[in-house]
Amino acid sequence: MRNENLSRREAADRSALIAVEDYEVLLDLSAAPDPAVGTFPTTTTVRFRAEEGAQSFLDLVAATVESVVVNGTELNPDDVVEGARVRLPSLAAHNEVTVVARGRYSRSGEGLHRFTDPADGAVYLYTQYEPADARRVFACFDQPDLKASFRFAVVAPHGWEVSSNGVRMAAAPEPAAERAGAVRHAFSATERISTYITAVLAGPYARVTGEWRHAFEDGSRMSVPLALYCRASLAEHLDARELFDLTRQGLTFFTELFGRPYPFGKYEQAFVPEYNLGAMENPGLVTFTEEYLFPDGATRAQLQGRANTLMHEMSHMWFGDLVTMPWWDDLWLKESFAEFMGAHASVRATDFEEAWIAFADRRKAWAYRQDQLPTTHPVVADVPDLEAAKQNFDGITYAKGAAVLKQLVAFVGYGPFVAACRELFRRHAWGCAGLEDFLAVLAEASGRDVRGWADAWLGTAGVATLSLDLARDDDGAVGFAALLQEPGSGVLRPHRLLLGSYERGPGDLLVRTGTVEVDLPAAASVEIPELVGSTAPLMLVNEEDLTYAKVRLDPVSLATALSSLSSVEDGMARAQLWSALWNAARDAELDPSDFVGAVLDHGFDEPLAGVFATAGDRAVEAVERLAPRAARARLRGRLLDAVVRELRAADPGGDRQLALARLAARLARRDGGHAAWLRDLLEGRAALPGLPLGPELRWALWTALAATAAGEDPALTAALEREQAADRTRTGRLGAARTRAAVPTPQAKAAAWAAITGEELSNDLLTATITGFRLGPPELLEPYRERYFAMLEEVWAQRSIGMATRLVEGLYPSDADLEPGHDSARHPVVARTELWLTNHAGAPAALRRILVEERDHLLRALRAQASARG
After folding, report:
1. C-alpha–C-alpha distance, residues 304 and 320, integer Å
2. How far is CA 223 from CA 210, 212, 213, 246, 798, in A?
3. pTM of model > 0.85
4. Which of 525, 608, 842, 870 has the most Cβ atoms closer than 10 angstroms to its Cβ?
5. Is 371 helix (H, G, I), strand (E, B) or coil?
6. The dihedral of CA 165, 170, 172, 174: what is its sign?
7. E strand or H helix at 778, and its extent?
8. How confident is the model at residue 673 (pLDDT cuts 50, 70, 90)?
9. What is the pLDDT, as a whole number, of residue 711?
10. Residue 230 neighbours by CB distance under 10 Å
11. What CA–CA distance (Å, rounded) separates 657 from 297?
């Protein structure tokens, strides 16, 4: 029975019946190193109060259920286990239920994930549950509002590091383990937390310890143990000093900001392999993708991104863990806040003062893209079930929500905003809070009517476009100025924002010479008399990025941006101008060749590595998706030639050199013009002093060479085999899989398709193989288009939603071209998608949503191609 998709209604009904007190969970992982063993023993005892005589159910996705005991009475599992649920009939006022089962080790990153390190054969385990995969590890009431205290015990092989949310209290030999020589690790009981943030980590992890100390104004002191974990084969790349410095800075900042001490007993951070997310806020044991360790070296932008994520997760200890949303409709209440706090704390507590620039440059682009899809939703979304919840961890919930909070701070003031946060924690500590709770404390702290603001910003979907309507005379002086708002999804919102005027200054730089503060009501326009008389060649709407809206540049400002963007002195302003140009290109208002031209003219002079990297990524997308086929090879060649020229001249060992090398590798996937030189780099016949040619970059270059090879190349095949033999790391395994799939032959594509549609690949190997498969001439992929649509429902039914999403999104035939004179709406892939949607009206809503979104992405690209110059 498929009943894993818990609905909001079912969760609310269960909450009305029961109140959970505590769990005791025992996991026997002693046989985990044996690859032939696919399951593990799991025993759960849960105590809870209930309405006497009521019926309810526990959530459990297990290989087998061996026993169910309810209040001392053993029930037949065949009678009470139905799919992903364990029925609990005839409950008492006070209940104790014990469930013994065998869980499955995961390769999808959901539940208890098992990874074998190709470098040394060591086995590593970690859990990942959000939104509801704790049930894959132990029986539980797997919904956020049924909080409880948890006490974990884990049996693991001797010599393994083991951790959980609580503090380890004892470790002793366990004679009853599945495998001899195992050790039982017992952990202290947690405070009342939700199931989705419980966690277990086990394996021969490298561990580094530290401490954070804090003195309060009243003279009291606090000490919190710190720890970092990573795979032993990556230990040399665990920059513990910097990570501990950031951790201490964050704990001090948030403790003082929120007026409430860090609420958990320890703060450990683990960097784990094959992780589906950037990180997860498990209290006491935060997990991160090990992509935040940098064997190939890192640009400052990458280090800033890691610091931002670290602060994001740390803020969750208050927003999300201490106070939790009752259901996934209010996911924004933790994720929007954490996204905001990640940048805010980075600026206030660390030396990454450019964090808000990075947010404006890249994170908001994620929001704009998501918010223009047919499936857009309000920040406070309607989430009827778990499948919908999994799809709402998106750019709206995170980046738009954070941008809206930035606008809220501009609306009510920073002090009242912080006061509201403090009061929310005071009232709802160890419990749950939703939108109404937040609005109540915000209204009290600010003394303002926030209901109307919330309705406009949190309760509606879509992104507005703001622009200046300027009438200039022959000398360029403004005679009339108005700020215009073009609604997104028909919604006009109030905006508090700044307008910046830029004029030429010393060194021919464009410097800000004036700022106008504007309160734009929920209206289509407002006059700006302060701009009358100005001759500024550049006027920037949303100076300092205070509001959430796309910006359309006026004609004079657009011309100035295209000719002089690199002359703009302010980093935030440059990032916003790049954003405005990119949105215009995506909206088919700026020719993709003009955007690529701007990158060629100004991108290489951009001093902020993150802004440069984003501009480069967008230039690649402009070439590969927005430009018409007739212009693509020419634009790609111009861009790649320029990138290689800049790479050869770049300062050794700098951020620019590494970013340029990565961009060259990406462009070279579809252009073999520099293949010989790249091959020489890889095989030591050429060199770029200072460039860290580590495994990630090496495999990116090998993938490019394979994808542009002229069919089967025995010499290249032999070189790839040598590279793989020399690189036994996880990066090497992923790179080899991607590179094999990229080879442009029917045989290579057939082998890749068989691997992708089989069930042997882990999450990361699946994505790597899909990435390689998608490279190469379109005619090689044409035979798979119909097979893709034919398998969709089967894939969705047989795979976890995480793995199915990787397949459905990754294999969608989006690399399509519009024939000159043809209608984008009648493109064969668009038409085939619409036929599938029509014929599968009853397919799962989450699956249909992906197809609707992919169709829209394709249509947007085709419209840009149709309007572009050939």
Report:
1. 23
2. 11, 6, 4, 16, 48
3. yes
4. 608
5. helix
6. negative
7. helix 778-781
8. very high
9. 74
10. 25
11. 11
Beta-strand pair 267-272/285-289: parallel
Please work out, in degrees rounded to the nearest 5, the angle formed at the alpha carbon of residue 451 by the alpha carbons of 486 and 374.
40
Average of per-residue pLDDT across 429-454: 96
CA distance 207 to 858: 46
Instruction: Give the pLDDT band (50/70/90) at residue 692.
Output: confident
Residue 637 identity = G
Q: Would you tell me how many other CB atoms lie within 10 Å of the CB of residue 760?
A: 8
Here the tokens at position 432 are 């749950």
Q: What is the 3-state secondary structure (H, E, C) of 107-137?
A: CCCCEEEEEECCCCCCEEEEEECCCCCHHHC
**Cα(734)–Cα(296) distance, rounded to whole angstroms?**
15
CB 502 within 8 A of CB 539: yes
- Which residues make beta-bridge pairs with 551? 466
pLDDT of residue 870: 67
415 burial (CB, 10 Å; 0-12 / 13-18 / 19+) is: exposed
> Which residues are tagged catalytic?
313
Helix (H) or strand (E) holding 366: helix 364-371
Tokens at residue 257, please?
Answer: 């900001």
Domains in the chain (CATH in brackets) are 1-204 (2.60.40.1730), 217-463 (1.10.390.10)
Collect all residues with Cβ–Cβ distance below 8 Å to 50 and sequence separation of at least 6.
Answer: 17, 18, 19, 56, 91, 92, 93, 95
The 10 Å Cβ neighbour count of residue 308 is: 25
Averaged pLDDT score across all residues of the chain = 96
Nearest-angstrom CA–CA distance, 848 and 836:
9
How much is the average pLDDT of 274-293?
A: 98
Alpha-carbon gap, residue 760 to 436, rounded angstroms: 46
Kindly tell me if the per-residue pLDDT of 825 is higher than 90: no
Distance of CA 397 to the CA centre of its chain: 11
- What does the pLDDT average to over 501-527? 95
Tell me the two tokens of residue 615: 């501009």
| Distances in whole angstroms, Cα of residue 108 to Cα of each of 111, 198, 754 | 8, 18, 18
Q: What integer pLDDT is reported at residue 815 of this predicted model? A: 86
What's the token pair of residue 611?
């802004």
> How much is the CA Rg of the chain, to the nearest whole Å?
28
Tokens of residue 285, six digits = 């044991």
Residue 236 CB contacts under 8 Å (≥ 6 apart), including other chains: none
- In angstroms, the CA 356 to CA 343 distance is 6
- What strands, in cross-sheet order, belong to the sheet with 550-552? 525-527, 478-486, 465-472, 550-552
Per-residue pLDDT tens digits for 772-797: 999 989 999 999 999 999 999 999 99
Per-residue model confidence as pLDDT tens digits over 829-841: 999 999 999 999 9
For the residues 816-821, what does the mean pLDDT come to? 84
Dist CA 602 CA 267 (whole Å)? 43
In this predicted structure, the answer to whether residue 1 has a pLDDT above a threshold of 70 is no
| Residue (of 521, 479, 530, 461) closest to 497 by Cα position | 521
Give ∠ CA 341-367-375 in degrees, rounded to 5: 130
Query: Amino acid letter at 275?
Result: Y
